[in-house]
User: Which sequence fits this backbone?
């Protein structure tokens, strides 16, 4: 038997948007692991956008550095 949803709840997978705070370290790890890309993230302010840009560059540079030994 399904439980009734409380006001403000949505079905899992219903496409609701979450507003959360995530550390730079976690974003860097997710980028490096290929779990997310910058286009998956919608920055809510300019400081976050600049930080994300910096993390993307760092993740890319780290990847190039790791793979440079295999050339």
Assistant:
């Amino acid at each position: 038997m399904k439980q009734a949803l409380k006001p403000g709840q949505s079905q899992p997978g219903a496409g609701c948007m979450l507003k959360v705070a995530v550390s730079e370290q976690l974003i860097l790890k997710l980028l490096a692991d290929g779990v997310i890309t910058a286009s998956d993230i919608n920055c809510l302010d300019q400081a976050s956008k600049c930080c994300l840009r910096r993390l993307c560059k760092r993740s890319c540079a780290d990847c190039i550095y790791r793979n440079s030994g295999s050339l």
